[in-house]
Write a structure and sequence with these properties.
Strand content: 15-25%
Largest sheet: 6 strands, mixed
Number of domains: 3
Structural class: alpha/beta
Number of helices: 12
Number of strands: 18
Radius of gyration: 24 Å
Distance between the termini: 18 Å
Shape: globular
Oligomer: single chain
CATH superfamily of the largest domain: CobE/GbiG C-terminal domain
Low-confidence stretches: none
CATH architecture of the largest domain: 2-Layer Sandwich
Strand order of the largest sheet: 2-1-3-4-5-6
Length: 341
Amino acid sequence: MKVSIIAFTDNGMEIAYKLSNSLSESNDVDFTRCGKGALSTWTEEHFSTNDALIFIGAIGIALRAIAPYIKTKTKDPAVVVVDELGQFSIPILSGHIGGANELALQIAEDLGSIPVITTATDINNVFAVDTWAKSQGLNILNPECIKLVSSKLLKGESVHVKSDYPIQGNLPKNVYLNDLEDSNAGYDVIITHKDLENERKNDTLLLVPQIITVGIGCRKDISFEAIESSILNILESENYHILAINALASIDKKANEKGILEFAKKYDLPFNTYSAEELNSLEGEFTKSEFVKSVVEVDNVCERSAIMESNGKLIRRKDTCDGAGVTVALAINDPNISWGK
């Protein structure tokens, strides 16, 4: 977790120094004293690149500083304010998904201060679906529906969850799993790697696990547009959501392929490559090509790299993408989900 701290006074700098030491055990932390007129520049620079910001000073200063840069609760960093005497630790942005509540509690423990938590689910000891989703590695497709689930739980009403995967542990209070008819109707939360665009109209909270690996092969200097259209078309044909992708994989000869690298950057995905020797070490049935083997010393790049990266099973074998110069295969590894954090 990348954390940046800013202070405004001598007392504030003492607090910043203490927090830098304590938080650095498990985080990448830096701190600075704000110079005259420098707050806006510092905030703009760090807001989009950091996981968390800590302001040592007044809440009003922090609020005015971050206001121009706030976008969405799934992307904004955690923001915590600590007064310059270290008496209170107050999360003011991204309490759940961004982890500001958890960070505020950690700061309070480190400084011996009082954490001021105001989110309703926390103070009422009610299951927080967004915090839980983050802890389980589930992407939140429509965060505007979080409040609908939380509102039901706060009123003591039932929340019905449909999951395409088993979930270990005891159900939270008033939460029911796969208890309705097989259709999606009536469910408040659906957990799936499928693209359920229609359910977004029904105020259903959609959670997407990152469990699909894209194995890819291509001709040299293939364009980004060819890579993107090929992958997206395959996903659409299988009705898989783009947020379900966890990584791209290929042979090491493609490690610097610009089209793949650009796709990985755009969709914020890791791109890992493997040697021919590593890919050939895999056992199993693969769609073989003697031509590919004569060029890269492996009979199939996309299927083998997808399996190598995911350690899962193929759900879409080699597709030549209508002769676009790209081959794509998909592998899946079922998620390990539990009701505990």
